[in-house]
Design brief:
The chain is mostly helical. Helix content is 57%, strand content 6%. Helix 2 packs across helix 5.
Length: 171
């Protein structure tokens, strides 16, 4: 079976393109609202999530920087604020006391649970209007779209090797 592919600006996809842009903006706004409930920025909420996922062993600032595709200096700034508000603690590494491991405090665990709970509640409410079959289809389509857009690839400037646009060539 042959499928038709529409390009940018094609009238067949123009409404869909705008809907997807609006949806992305809505998710950004939702993330900002929910992060504010925890007294953090969306980036700090993501850091809390990643530190929490590391469990009791914690995560090193370097590993956290790598995970986020950023520098250790940027992570240090984000983590410093989370430390000042009592949500993340820097603990000595059990392997090398000179190294630090980041772990959630009890306050950080509570904030993360509250924000994640609010996210789950809001998304569940938004999906109530869909049937089970429609939710499954939406999940499959969204997963395909995320994959095709390169979700999960290393951050930074897109390159042709990572699926970004190839460099422009002069005629």
């Amino acid at each position: 079976m042959r499928t038709e592919t529409a390009g940018p600006g094609d009238p067949k996809t123009e409404g869909l393109e705008q809907t997807l842009v609006d949806l992305a903006r809505a998710f950004v706004s939702l993330g900002e609202e929910i992060a504010a409930l925890g007294g953090v920025t969306p980036q700090q909420w993501a850091i809390l999530h990643q530190v929490g996922a590391a469990g009791d062993a914690g995560i090193s600032p370097s590993d956290l920087a790598t995970l986020n595709g950023t520098s250790r200096a940027n992570i240090t700034k984000l983590v410093a604020r989370l430390g000042r508000i009592g949500q993340v603690a820097a603990l000595p590494s059990p392997v090398d006391g000179r190294q630090k491991r980041l772990a959630l405090t009890v306050a950080g665990q509570r904030a993360l649970l509250r924000m994640n709970g609010e996210k789950a509640y809001r998304l569940a409410r938004a999906l109530e209007a869909f049937s089970t079959k429609e939710r499954a289809e939406l999940g499959q389509l969204a997963g395909t779209l995320l994959r095709d857009l390169g979700a999960g690839r290393p951050r930074g400037r897109p390159t042709a090797a990572r699926g970004g646009r190839p460099p422009l060539r002069r005629a």
